[in-house]
Amino acid sequence: MLSKEKNELLCRVATGTPMANTLRENFWIPVAISSKLIADGKPIPIRVFGEDFVAFRATDGRVGIFDERCPHRGASLLLARNEDNALRCIYHGFKFSVTGQTVEVPTEPRNPEAFCRSVPLHHYPVREAAGVIWVWLGRSQMKQFPEFEWTKVPANQVYATKQTLRCNWLQNVEGGMDSAHVSILHQSWLGQPGTTPTFVTDDLAPVYEIDQFEGGFRYAAIRTTKAGKYIRVSQFIMPWYCFVPPRDFPHGDRLVLMSTPVDDTHVTYWNVVYNPYKPLTPSFQVPAEDPDNFPPATMGGREEAWGQDRGAMARGHFSGFPHLNTEDFAVAESQGPIADRSIEFLNAGDRAVVQLRRQLLDLVEGTQRLGGAAAFPHDKIDYGRIRAYADVRADSSTWRNLLVEAA
Description:
CATH topology of the largest domain: Naphthalene 1,2-dioxygenase Alpha Subunit, Chain A, domain 1
Helix content: 10-25%
Order of helices and strands: HHEEEEEEEEHEEEHHEEEEEEHHHEH
CATH class of the largest domain: Alpha Beta
Shape: globular
Oligomer: single chain
Largest sheet: 8 strands, antiparallel
Number of domains: 2
Strand content: 25-35%
Radius of gyration: 22 Å
């Protein structure tokens, strides 16, 4: 369990809090699906750390991200005209280029060029990779972009989706690093293309072995099954990257989860499926539905049991939810808007979650001690070689040797 004070330190992410400062000053933030931004199309809303931003794709294809409120009188730039590589506020016509310069103020009669240079528009650096828009929101020097292998594969080898959940960001991150729940919560989906084999239900209490390194950790969840020692090696890179083992290693589709804070009580869940070797194969993880709203969100809240279908349970489905990820959504939201970790009763199946919390606490507390100057060790991480994997072996003690195969 955590003290209430440490739980607050990890969970509170409004601008100005220690965690928000740590995340903003050290990490690029994924904020939008690339395909949602059309050249000269409508701007889209972005909300991160309790702040509102606007994103748009300019005439020439570049992406701009600004504070949502026009610096003139505060009208929303979601209403703006997107034209000529710029946003024009429809209230008084202030025009802002995609690179963040104020280029026109129709209502200023005297020396409008000088007035344009004085307008305090906040705009932010942007990157596009893996079908995702990323933004740098820090005030300090821009840090390294995490060039994982999935950020550099061709477009037909990666597919990103996202969904907004009604809970704190950490609840979702913890779910991504919790291998013990797979055999129980997700048992009705086991064996489907891209998922875990059914024999993981042979052993509901995996043994964990954890290796910590700068910037994250890897762990083996070892199950004794009828097929042998089934080893699932997951990797966590701070602050929210969860690498989930593929079923068919090494050439099967892979999965990365991200959970970015919207505010204290909402999180954006990201599901990135990729394959470094070949185009993705059709599966329930690579749908034709709206990538900005997938997998399906839970319906209602506590009063509606998050949309759980008891009829489906009576017919044999374990959880009564329509998608594997919706099961995760329901249990995360059911823990409350901000889970109270001071009343938990943990066991051996929670070792990876405990490790995750410890490393995030070390990061935010170290940043506090140094007055916000602590830098995440990006240079110590070989992002392009981070992978998860799963395999059946006769001897589980050699799982670390498989890291060479995984890379």
